């Protein structure tokens, strides 16, 4: 059985790496300003990757 799932969310550290930022502070700022969407689950945020692609101009 193959795992053909598309990743829908990522942690802020992963998003920072994707966008080329050196730390997660910028990602948290983007979440607070509403430029990218995220949901808090427990003590961590899960960032919506579709909103990251839109922010980066890929969609």
Strand content: 15-25%
Number of strands: 3
The helix count comes to 3
Structural class: alpha+beta
The mean pLDDT is 92
**Quick one: biggest sheet?**
3 strands, antiparallel
**Helix fraction bin:** 40-55%
**Low-confidence runs:** none
Read across the widest sheet, the strand sequence of neighbours is 1-3-2
Number of domains: 1
SSE pattern: EHHEEH
Distance between the termini: 31 Å
Shape: globular
Radius of gyration using CA atoms only: 12 Å
Any overview of this molecule?
With 59 residues, the chain is of the alpha+beta class. It has one domain. The protein contains three helices and three strands, in the order E-H-H-E-E-H. The protein has a three-stranded antiparallel beta sheet. A hairpin with a 2-residue loop joins strand 2 and strand 3. The radius of gyration is 12 Å and the shape is globular. Keywords: DNA-binding. This is DNA-binding protein. One of its GO terms (molecular function) is DNA binding.
Q: What's the topology here?
A:
Blueprint (H helix, E strand, L loop, with lengths): L8 E2 L1 H8 L5 H9 L4 E4 L2 E5 H7 L4
Antiparallel strand pairs: 1-3, 2-3
Keywords: DNA-binding
Pfam families: HTH_17
Protein name: DNA-binding protein
Structure in a nutshell:
The protein is an alpha+beta fold and 59 residues long.
From the structure above, extract its key features.
3 strands; alpha+beta; 41% helix; single chain; 59 residues
